[in-house]
Amino acid sequence: MCGVIKDGSAEGGSTGVGVLLRAFRASASAALGRPILQREVADALHRSERWYRDLEGGIITRTFTRHELDTIGTLLGLDRVQRRALFLVSNGGGPSSLEAQEPPRISDELCFLLDQQPFPAYVIDANWNVLAVNPSMAALFPWSTAPEANLMRWLLLSDEARDQHLNWEADAEVCVRMLRDAAVDRPHDPDLQQLISDTRQNPAVGDLWTRGTADFTDHYDGHVLRMTLPPFDGQVTELVTHVLHPAGLPGCRMTILTQRAPRVPAGEQQVQAD
């Protein structure tokens, strides 16, 4: 059985079409080095400037067609996740925002897989609540075994996370981008909206929300965490995140943390090769 299995039993996250379009246009203008005018987007969509101005102003709403999404995405240089976010916002969220799902339950098979990992591993639900951890995770991150432990709350709001994450701001920025993406997928999830609201109230985290309104991320697979952890006597440790999606737990993720080997300088590599 798993080392630790846990019971699985607003404002700030909502983003309207107009708000998102303004953020994307401002970001594209900054990247291009000149302002992209509302008229340019309207012309590309074969619409009047007034219509597009009303769309950005929230006076009208719009469910975008695939062609319109491609047109806007190309003009504003949107990546895959940004285009997905714009689609979800214009459609009032994704299928997961409409489905009433039972609380996730960790199967014996998944529990066995978790415990077999030699590296720290854990399972979280769609709102980053920790559902189960293996013994290695519990030993390295004792906070994860606490009742109602939440990965986002720990990383974004705890002093312990700030002390242990050497690149805390960069790691926190990834978290905010994921929260922003989740908000457009599940705009009516009260637990998610409460999580977003709580993080926005922290001044340092609130600043990340404010300055990156056009940035979205839907995963943190392959992200490198540079940390100082008590079991390693304060030595700098680099952990790489590997994210899996169990088919039997829609919306949940299993993450394995592997330790990256220290980098050997090029000169020393040549000596070793000789």
CATH architecture of the largest domain: 2-Layer Sandwich
**How many H/I helices?**
13
What is the first-to-last residue Cα distance? 48 Å
Mean pLDDT: 88
How would you classify the helix and strand content by structural class?
alpha+beta
CATH fold annotation of the largest domain? Beta-Lactamase
Give the H and E element order: EHHHHHHEEHHHHHHEEEH
Radius of gyration: 21 Å
Strand tally, please? Answer: 6
Strand content: 5-15%
Number of domains: 2
Unreliable stretches covering 5 or more consecutive residues: 9-14
The shape is elongated
The biggest beta sheet, please?
6 strands, antiparallel
**Name of the CATH class of the largest domain:** Alpha Beta
Question: Numbering strands along the chain, what is their spatial order in the largest sheet?
Answer: 1-3-2-6-5-4
Helix content: 40-55%
Task: Characterize this entry briefly.
With 274 residues, this protein is α+β, with helices and mostly antiparallel strands. It has 13 helices and 6 strands.
How does this model look, in words?
Residues 9-14 have low confidence and may be disordered. The protein is elongated, with a radius of gyration of 21 Å. β4 and β5 (236-244) form a beta hairpin. α1 (17-32) runs antiparallel to α5 and α2 crosses α3 (49-56). Helices cover 46% and strands 11% of the residues. It contains 13 helices and six strands. It folds into two domains: 17-97, Orthogonal Bundle (434 Repressor (Amino-terminal Domain)); 104-259, 2-Layer Sandwich (Beta-Lactamase). The protein starts with a strand and ends with a helix. It has 274 residues and is α+β, with helices and mostly antiparallel strands. It has a six-stranded antiparallel β-sheet.
